[in-house]
Design brief:
There is one protein chain. The chain has two domains: about 1-60, Roll (2,3-Dihydroxybiphenyl 1,2-Dioxygenase, domain 1); about 70-130, 2-Layer Sandwich (Signal recognition particle alu RNA binding heterodimer, srp9/1), CATH 3.30.720. It is built from two helices and eight strands; from the N terminus they run E-H-E-E-E-E-H-E-E-E. It has helices at about 15-25, 80-90; strands at about 5-10, 30-35, 35-40, 55-60, 70-75, 95, 105-110, 115-120. Strand 2 and strand 3 (about 35-40) form a beta hairpin. The radius of gyration is 15 Å and the shape is globular. The protein starts with 6 loop residues before the first strand and ends in a 19-residue tail after the last strand. The mean pLDDT is about 85.
Amino acid sequence: MACRISELVIDSRDPERLAAFWCEVLGFVVLDRLNGSVEIGPEKEGFGGLQPTICFNPTDDPRMGKLPLHIDVNPTDRDQEAELARLLAAGARPADVGQTGEETWHVLADPEGNEFCLLRRRLSETSKRGRLPVAGH
């Protein structure tokens, strides 16, 4: 028997704001609130479903340096440029991590500066096949 990721836990200065942003990005809903933490996930699956939930825990500690983990997202119902416009309108902002301009992805930051990438390939909402990331992606 193997394990699978059930939750991603992210420290946040404003859990409500980040939860709202990532709900908009991923089409998730708030599943629970407890002691200042906000957990979001797929509406129909909730905690324990095939997709991991994300829990934003409150912290006052400043983040030091680049996170060792970042999230990649793919559009599901539109092309990359239309999805980029949607994410920027939701509060994402471009992030510079030394891109050359030749990349097929966009590097963005959420409202607290956590970097994530919008990849080009369009996925169906129910895609289950994984892929290994390319160097730098």
